[in-house]
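Much of what follows relies on a compact textual record of a protein's fold. A record is reproduced here so that you can trace the correspondence yourselves:

. . .
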Amino acid sequence: MKKVLDTGLKLLLSLSMLVTAQSAFALTTGTVVGSNFVNGQTSYGTTFADGTTATFVGSSAFKQKSQAGITGVGIAGGRTDGEIDIGETLTGTFSKEVIVSSINLALLFDGPEYNDVKEVAKMLVSFADGGTGVYYLTATGVHSAAWTGEGSAVSIGSGAVDGGTGAWQLNNPFGFRSVDSIVFTAVKGYPNSTCHKCDNQSDYTFVSMTVIPVPEADTTAMMFAGLLLMGGLATRRMKS
């Protein structure tokens, strides 16, 4: 009986060490929030818990804009003050590769709100593997949007209505491809066939982005080596 108890205690200890090892190497997330961008400045930087830095630069000065309880950031001046218009850019770069968990945008409408067309946000992505991609988010209804990447586009708040949020959350937008940088801009939208006055072209605000920094190769190797060692010890103790 004592041998059985000793074996059980050793196994529990091994499993505890295994969980501790996993927790020690748990992936952390970092979030960039548009409401933290300072009006009048052209760049914003933040550092995540693991030391990864994110830097966002505007084609001109930042300007925050709030509506229906959501605050985002765009570019001052231009055709629509405080939003990212056609010809304007907001560029985010990361000090090391990240996986994008979610992106939140707002004030992207489907028309006829504000005489807007079906507005289109464009994202130019540089991936860590050297590839690039161009993606589009198009507002198609009060709570519906078309997204050309992976994952899903979900309506946030009151949706694309007059005075509403016109807000969308992109979940897992680029799959599990690691990202180095993203350029946010806008492109010409699609006229609403029932709204002959819908000629106000695409614009929107950047609300937030949540990313998962990718561990360095040596850290990942150490993690798996530790987990394999813990697993091997647990197996041997179970057999003894």
Q: What stands out?
A: The domain at 28-214 is CATH 2.60.120 (Jelly Rolls). Confidence is low (pLDDT under 50) at residues 2-25, 218-230.
